[in-house]
Amino acid sequence: MDFGKIVERAKAILMTPRTEWPLVAAEPATTSSLYAGYIVILAALPAIAGFIKSSLIGTTVFGITVRTPMAMGVVGMLMSYALGLVLVYVMALIVNALAPTFNGQKDSVQALKTIAYAWTASWVAGIFVIIPWLGWMIALAGNIYAIYLLYVGLPHTMKCPPEKAAGYTAVSILIAFVLMWIIGFIVAGVIGTAALSGAAMGGGMHITGSDGDAVTVDGDSALGKLAAMGQRAEQAGKEMDAAQKSGDSSAQSAAMGKMMGALAGSNGAVEALAPDQIKTFLPDSLGDLKRTSISAQRNGAMGMQVADATAEYSNGSQHITLEVTDTGGAKGLMAMAAAMAPEEEKETDHGYEKTYTADGHMVHEEWDSQSKSGEYSVVLGKRFTVKANGNSDSIDQLKRAVAVVDLAKLESMKNAGVKSD
After folding, report:
1. Are 141 and 95 in contact (CB under 8 A)?
2. What distance in Å separates the CA atoms of residue 117 and residue 17, rounded to the nearest whole number?
3. Among 367, 298, 295, 294, residue whose Cα is nearest residue 328
4. How many CB atoms lie within 10 A of CB 82?
5. pTM of the model
6. CA dist., res. 389 & res. 365, Å (int)
7. In this predicted structure, what is the pLDDT of residue 105?
8. DSSP of 267-293, one letter per residue?
9. Are the CB atoms for 85 and 123 separated by under 8 Å?
10. What is the rounded distance in angstroms from the CA atom of residue 13 to the CA atom of residue 124?
């Protein structure tokens, strides 16, 4: 097993898919060589990251960190990995069976290549679930980019006409979504959690038919935007290759930022607000709750900058945490997540949770009347989030805490630090 070749292939399919897919389609391969030499390695990444997140890092809610017991975490990791390997094969069978419907050529090995290399983006992005808050958005971007890779690859591997690729992609993804949903429930039932791996693959795709069974891609549709994203990523990949050959570290950093910006849906690099700047949005007090601490930071990972400021407020009996986050370089992902997020509402005997849109803003709120605790958050300008959580008299107190922040001013800064390439 040549790990260097695996890395090079993953890098090439992610950065220059239009030139890599013809090479993929032409090279000899077998089912066993694809599994042993690529799939078993890449598919393990999200499974391992999920275990680290659930059993080692844990999920923090209302100041309480919940971790999946180690034994069950291992079981969940192994099961999700095994089912993931099976899913790749099943999806390859489906893609192969669908080929004649879209004027393609059936070939089981080419179908397995299609799924394995298209899902590279999803597997690699799955590593980032361990990152608090932004992890799920990066994973979402990987899932979405995998759709684009599938769209670009089908005409090469399955020999379908390019004008049929959109419909072929849409049908394949809908089936993949259903299968992933089922697998998510199986794994969740075993480890006792409600996480659904890969559900983001089901983000709505708008396919416009021109006449009869001919399918064209609307440039303003989700798939059309994905295509544009892929083109930007491909160009950024070429720049990254040039930067690496030059040995210029600053050029490499800039190219990585452009690549991540392309995958995040941004046209250029985005500089997040400086710590001193974002910290000013947190007030000295929330009614009779005095601020007991405040902190702010700006971090960069893989060329993407993110900033956040957090303040704690207390009066002895009540405690509220107020947080302002600038997703910066991931603002494209935030916009996509806001567009795809479903409106939903759940109720229990002693509380509720709901996500909805109000005045063009995505809002999430949850409340538990027994513990007198909850959370209220709002997304502004498809870039900033303001969140209040803790124990209080009612959810209205948390809403008022968010309202104390100058939301209009914060939203007006949605284009601050955006650099067009």
Report:
1. no
2. 10
3. 298
4. 12
5. 0.50
6. 10
7. 94
8. SS-BPPPPHHHHHTTS-SEETTEEEEE
9. no
10. 12
**Neighbour count for residue 183 (Cβ, 10 Å):** 19
Q: Domain coordinates of the chain in residue numbers?
A: 3-240, 275-412
Buried b (16+ CB within 10 A) or exposed e, 23-45: ebbeeebeeeebbebbbebbbbb
Residues 233, 170, 111: CA angle, nearest 5 degrees? 80
Beta bridge partners of 298: 307
Q: Give the containing element (helix H, strand E) for 196.
A: none
Do residues 17 and 150 make contact, with C-beta atoms less than 8 angstroms apart? no
- CA dihedral of 180, 182, 187, 190, whole degrees rounded to 10: 180
* Number of helical (H) and strand (E) elements in the chain, helices listed first: 16, 13
Measure the N-to-C terminal CA separation of the chain; round to a whole number of Å. Answer: 39
Quickly tell me which residue has 């891609």 as its tokens: 217
| Single-letter code of the amino acid located at 36 | A
Burial class of 192 by CB neighbour count within 10 A (0 to 12, 13 to 18, 19+): exposed
Q: Which amino acid is at 27?
A: E
Pick the CATH number of 275-412 from 3.40.1000, 3.40.109, 1.10.760, 1.20.120: 3.40.1000
Q: How far is CA 392 from the centre of its chain?
A: 32
List, for residues 65-120, the tens digit of each pLDDT value. Answer: 566 665 666 666 777 777 788 888 888 988 998 899 889 999 999 999 999 999 99
Q: State the pLDDT at residue 214.
A: 40
- Residue ranges, the chain, pLDDT below 70: 1-2, 55-76, 130-137, 177-245, 247, 249-269, 300-304, 329-343, 420-421
- The answer to whether 222 touches 203, Cβ cutoff 8 Å, is yes
Total residue count of the chain as it appears in this document: 421
Strand partners, 216: 208
Residue 293: Cβ within 10 Å count: 10
Q: What is the pLDDT of residues 164-213, one digit of tens each?
A: 888 888 888 877 766 666 555 555 554 443 333 333 333 333 333 333 33
Q: Tell me the CA distances in angstroms from 14 to 96, 101, 240, one per residue in order.
A: 23, 28, 12
Amino acid at 145: Y
